[in-house]
Specification:
By secondary structure, this protein is mostly helical. It has one domain: Cytochrome P450 (Cytochrome p450). Helices cover 52% and strands 6% of the residues. The chain is built from 20 helices and 8 strands. Strands 1-2-6-3 form a 4-stranded mixed sheet. It starts with a helix and ends with a helix. Bound molecules: protoporphyrin IX containing FE. The site of protoporphyrin IX containing FE has 26 residues, from helix 12 and helix 17.
């Protein structure tokens, strides 16, 4: 009798709990109507990734339900923040409790909990983060300006000689710059083995981490126990882990080998290898911290630069004004140097406007809270997934009139000069991007040099001979985004500019050589020939 009664109570309890799934609790902020059990599952943008980008759908809902709204996804709660006031009141004031990440079974399985960006708010994350913070301070990052600047001279040279490949040249640049800073080993070609290995590993990682691409193991944890033959994602997880580890630990071994030979070059990982144990990081974690930083730094920087080119092509008046400023402040004898940015307010505004117009991370990365907290009359329960709708904030017409227009002047208005909204591009609370100083340096150097060096204009339609029409919303879908591949015309602003580009690239040889100690024979041959040909060419000029 008792077992039957207990079983009855258990079934009743399970049914009772199930019926509460999907229902919005009265203490939550408002949001779209829910359906039983599934809640807002079908309102959630990632369920239809092929339809519309997540940030556009989240923004449409914000205009309807307000700057703090909630959704129920089965038994989890999602809150979306779409105003600076909400960011200040929720993220800044509660930073100690809103810096968790939603659970990611895939990230845990692939990296063993060593992925800083995907890690929960736990002791291992604190160790990884402390190490990254101390080694990536603003002043420490100045030590890497030389190689970032040298890499930018190769980017200019590549655009000069192969303008049609600019999309890949930018990708090579950003991957090589971050590899040099982190591992002291550069990548002179897009086919350099580490670049190919990174793209391959990243492709698998992004495919797995894309919400909606695989069964929702985090929402329905029992799925973890499905045997591999019916769960293709388990094989993908193994492949991704193998590819990442091969890249990260091969690179780590190369740094260790150089250090043993006494030919260190001051890269980030040398410091991490020395100081890592002091931060409580074992070799496993040291391997992953570097890998996670390549991942954080490579595609974000290239997406920004590709967006900048798209904007320059489509807003020629902005380009002309930026070039006027560069001509009057820098002149034509040499390209801009890192510290010149202080004297170039319009270029600074162009950079801010690029971040605002098409942010690389339009919803940053999702946060989660480790404790309940209240906001106005609402309670946000522990474990809520918090989306920062940076796109919605940057495209709020009340704050940024005509938000789709690329207008750097808005950042030169007195009230915007010290406005903190811009900081959102690098995230919030204790998760704010640890690579932002490295990123800012790269972006500033490149924006100054590229705008100084080239005229960017629209390609012609071969049939009509008219300017091509660009779809300024054709961006790759995902948590991190950038423009889909596009064509444009890139020409040096004068033959004198072209000559300066060649000279500056050749004179960066000494800086490059420090980062070329371990290149493979094909890359070594490539850089040798390139420099010999360039020297001959300049000699003839
Ligand atoms: C245009 C360049 C970049 C942009 C726009 C950008 C933006 C962001 C954003 C929005 C976040 C999420 C912050 C949050 O959760 O609130 C983030 C996290 C992160 N970024 Fe960046 N980032 C850039 C470059 C870099 C670079 C160069 C590195 C490495 C040197 C890097 C490494 C990371 C890491 C490791 C995290 C995860 C931090 C954590 O969860 O504790 N990022 N970044």
């Amino acid at each position: 009798m008792l077992p039957t009664l207990l079983a009855g109570v258990a079934v009743f309890w399970a049914v009772f709990r199930l019926l509460r799934w999907g229902r919005r609790e009265s203490f939550l902020p408002p949001g779209p109507p829910t359906v039983p059990i599934l809640g807002n599952l079908f309102d959630f943008p990632t369920v239809y990734p092929w339809l519309k980008s997540a940030h556009l759908m989240l923004t449409e809902m914000a205009r309807q339900y307000g700057d703090v709204y909630s959704m129920k996804i089965i038994n989890s709660t999602v809150v979306v923040l779409s105003s600076t006031t909400a960011i200040r009141e929720i993220m800044d004031k509660n930073s100690a409790i809103v810096s968790d990440r939603p659970a990611s079974h895939f990230a845990q399985e692939i990296t063993g909990g060593n992925h800083m960006g995907a890690s929960r708010y736990n002791d291992q994350w604190r160790r990884l983060r402390r190490c990254a913070r101390e080694v990536l301070t603003q002043s420490a990052c100045r030590n890497h300006l030389n190689i970032q600047q040298a890499e930018a001279t190769q980017l200019m040279y590549d655009m000069l000689t192969r303008p049609e490949d600019f999309f890949d040249s930018i990708r090579r640049f950003s991957t090589s710059a971050i590899l040099s800073v982190l591992y002291g080993k550069r990548a002179p070609r897009i086919t350099t083995p580490e670049v190919t290995a990174f793209f391959d590993a990243e492709h698998h990682w992004e495919e797995l981490m894309q919400p909606g691409a695989h069964p929702p193991v985090d929402l329905i944890p029992i799925m973890k126990y499905i045997p591999e033959r019916w769960a293709s994602w388990k094989t993908e997880v193994k492949i991704t882990r193998r590819l990442q580890r091969k890249l990260y630990f091969d690179l780590l071994e190369q740094v260790e080998a150089r250090m043993q030979k006494g030919s260190s070059n001051g890269c980030f990982m040398e410091t991490v290898i020395e100081k890592g144990p002091g931060f409580g990081l074992d070799r496993e974690a040291v391997g992953y911290i570097g890998g996670n930083l390549i991942e954080g730094g490579a595609d974000t920087t290239s997406a920004f630069l590709q967006t900048l080119v798209l904007a320059l092509v489509n807003f020629p008046d902005v380009q002309a004004r930026a070039q006027e400023e560069l001509d009057s402040v820098i002149g034509g004898e040499h390209s801009p140097q890192p510290d010149d940015i202080e004297r170039l307010p319009y270029i600074q505004a162009v950079i801010k406007e690029t971040h605002r117009w098409r942010p690389v991370a339009p919803t940053t990365l999702p946060h989660a809270n480790i404790e309940d907290f209240s906001y106005q009359d609402y309670i946000i329960p522990k474990g809520t997934i918090i989306f920062i709708n940076a796109w919605g904030i940057f495209h709020d017409p009340e704050v940024f009139p005509k938000p789709d227009e690329f207008n750097p002047d808005r950042w030169l208005q007195d009230d915007m000069k010290s406005d903190r909204t811009y900081d959102l591009v690098f995230g919030t609370a204790r998760r704010v991007c640890p690579g932002m100083h490295i990123a800012r340096n790269s972006i500033e150097i490149d924006a100054m040099k590229l705008i100084w060096a080239f005229k960017f204009s629209k390609s012609k339609d071969p049939a009509t001979k008219r300017d091509k029409v660009y779809d300024l919303n054709d961006f790759v879908k995902g948590i991190l985004t950038g423009p889909s591949r596009f064509e444009c015309e890139i020409a040096p602003r004068s033959s004198h500019h072209a000559e300066v580009i060649r000279r500056e690239f050749l004179s960066a040889t000494q800086i490059f050589e420090v980062f070329e100690q371990q290149l493979d024979s094909a890359d070594r041959e490539f850089v040798g020939k390139l420099r010999r040909d360039l020297a001959d060419e300049l000699h003839l000029l």
